[in-house]
Write a structure and sequence with these properties.
- The protein folds into two domains: 100 residues, no CATH class; 362 residues, Alkaline Phosphatase, subunit A (3-Layer(aba) Sandwich).
- The protein is built from eleven helices and 18 strands.
- It has 493 residues and is α/β, with parallel strands linked by helices.
- The protein has a ten-stranded mixed beta sheet with strand order 9-8-7-6-10-1-11-12-2-13, sandwiched between helices. A four-stranded antiparallel beta sheet has the order 15-16-17-18, covered by helices on one side.
Length: 493
């Protein structure tokens, strides 16, 4: 198979690693997994023991186990936050991204910023992978022949919540852990949560109800679940953060005999379309693609994050809480992103994590994926679970330059798929995300992310020429073999 490499000279030296860190860590390649099975679990438990010795002396942490806070933005790619490279995104001016609270969190000496974290390109598959530790193709997902979308065959219950033994567990904000959408209260109950307050996406009478006057299902300890419509002037993420702050604050008010570590997730509705006015702003026209409102939406999300962090600090829980801040996929097209697409603008997401004594501050450039959240939090909770395609992130912090993944693979609409290693990326062409093009999109294309991070120069398997070099051919064949091993690619007849 002949392969042609087409790279513009002007793009050389502007690869993803060099944009972030001057190229000092570029080209670090591995060809096989170096951490496997039981040895990984044992190493993670050693890390947990190290933290437990430190955290066990802190007031309010039962058996040395830390609290866990999982905060997830909606539709915010890496270039949607000011402490990541802009990726040439001119649709949202950098000056409009005012995020003092998230920026302060990023600059904290104990915060680690991941520069190569990947999600799936759509909301629910990312959330399900993060909480199950399994890839989409392992979750029993079916393809809808009419829409080309992935649907879940059954409601999964084997999620991280059930392994957080001895934790009080709560979820607030967006849920979206199932497709088609079912009653989120039933879903939360099946998951084993103690408390929840969740927005209901469907049915809404109009797009504005995603944010204002939304339907809401909730419960409190000792009270049954109820579904209600929030007042027209009530912003849905205010409701979610109020419940989050209330939950984390109440934990410190418990007596010594009733105190246990807690898990809490707040998953934003912000910045999912439509773009609407924020609290404190005069009501304007609702518009699905008004990019001028995107900066205000990000800023308000930052304000809400600041409220949660303040509650942790005010109650003395900030330093014994694992805090994860991330997003479910890349940004919407109107904001310069590529949600729904397997390009880096569709699957490259911000990821910040903090836990003093366990997480080393700085920037992380090794491969990781949101699927790794599941083993990370179950290991930290003292009930380690190992999945085939996910690894505890703590292994990165305690094993020098060890990689936890030699590749990342995923599938999305219309059987579009991608496999990427530390440099190369093999994927179906971008137009194949649309059902009408799916039949003509059998042959994957290769990109060199080191020199072409925006994926503008396809390396075609059909052409021959000066790019027909052994390095390129080896990368193409190796990634194609990985895709076949996962059942993502079937050779056309």
């Amino acid at each position: 198979m002949a392969v042609q490499l087409m790279l513009a000279d002007s793009q050389r030296g502007t690869g993803i690693l060099e944009m972030i860190d001057g190229g000092s860590k570029a080209g670090r390649l591995v060809n096989r997994r170096t951490v496997l099975g039981s040895s990984a679990a044992a190493a993670s438990m050693l890390c947990l023991d190290k933290y437990a010795a430190l955290a066990g002396r802190r007031k309010g942490v039962a058996a040395g186990r830390p609290n866990i806070l999982f905060v997830c933005l909606d539709d915010v790619g890496r270039d949607g936050l000011p402490f990541y490279p802009r990726w040439g995104n001119e649709q949202v001016p950098a000056g409009s991204l005012d995020c003092p609270n998230m920026d302060a969190f990023a600059r904290d000496a104990d915060t680690r910023i991941f520069d190569r974290m990947r999600s799936t390109p759509i909301c629910w598959t990312t959330r399900m992978e993060a909480m199950s530790g399994k890839k989409t193709w392992e979750l029993g997902a079916l393809m809808d022949s009419h829409t080309g979308k992935l649907l879940l065959k059954d409601q999964p219950t084997d999620l991280a919540y059930r392994y957080l033994t001895g934790y009080r567990k709560a979820a607030f904000g967006k849920w979206h852990l199932q497709v088609p959408v079912i009653n989120p209260a039933r879903s939360a109950s099946l998951a084993g949560l103690d408390e929840w307050g969740l927005s209901v996406e469907h049915p809404q009478t109009n797009a504005r109800q995603l944010y204002w006057g939304s339907w809401w299902v909730s419960n409190r300890p000792g009270d049954g679940s109820r579904k209600e419509r929030l007042p027209e002037d009530r912003f849905v993420d205010d409701e979610g953060v109020d419940r989050t702050v209330e939950f984390v604050t109440q934990q410190t008010a418990r007596g010594a005999d009733d105190r246990s570590p807690w898990y809490c997730q707040f998953w934003y509705n912000l910045t999912h379309e439509p773009t609407v006015d924020m609290p404190g702003q005069p009501r304007g026209d609702d518009n699905f693609e008004d990019v001028s409102k995107f900066g205000a939406m990000i800023s308000y999300a930052d304000f809400l994050f600041g409220r949660i962090v303040k509650a942790l600090k005010d109650t003395g829980q900030y330093d014994n809480t694992l805090i994860i801040l991330t997003s479910d996929n890349g940004g919407n097209g109107f904001a310069g992103g590529s949600k729904g697409d397997l390009s880096e603008r569709g699957i490259g997401v911000p990821f910040l994590v903090r836990l003093p004594g366990m997480v080393e501050g700085g920037r992380e450039q090794r491969l990781a994926q949101l699927t790794d959240i599941f083993p990370t939090i179950t290991h930290l909770a003292g009930n380690p679970q190992v999945r085939q395609h996910s690894r505890p992130l703590f292994e990165l912090f305690n094993r020098g330059n060890t990689q936890i993944h030699d590749h990342i693979a995923m599938i999305t609409f219309n059987r579009n798929w991608m496999v990427a290693d530390h440099r190369w990326k093999l994927r179906t062409p971008w137009q194949c995300r649309w059902k009408q093009h799916a039949e003509s999109c059998q042959d994957p294309v290769l990109f060199d992310l080191l020199y072409d991070p925006h994926e503008t120069n396809m390396i075609s398997p059909e052409a021959s020429g000066p790019g027909d070099v052994p390095e390129v051919k080896e990368a193409y064949q190796r990634l194609l073999a990985i895709a076949q091993s996962h059942g993502l690619y079937q050779q056309s007849a």
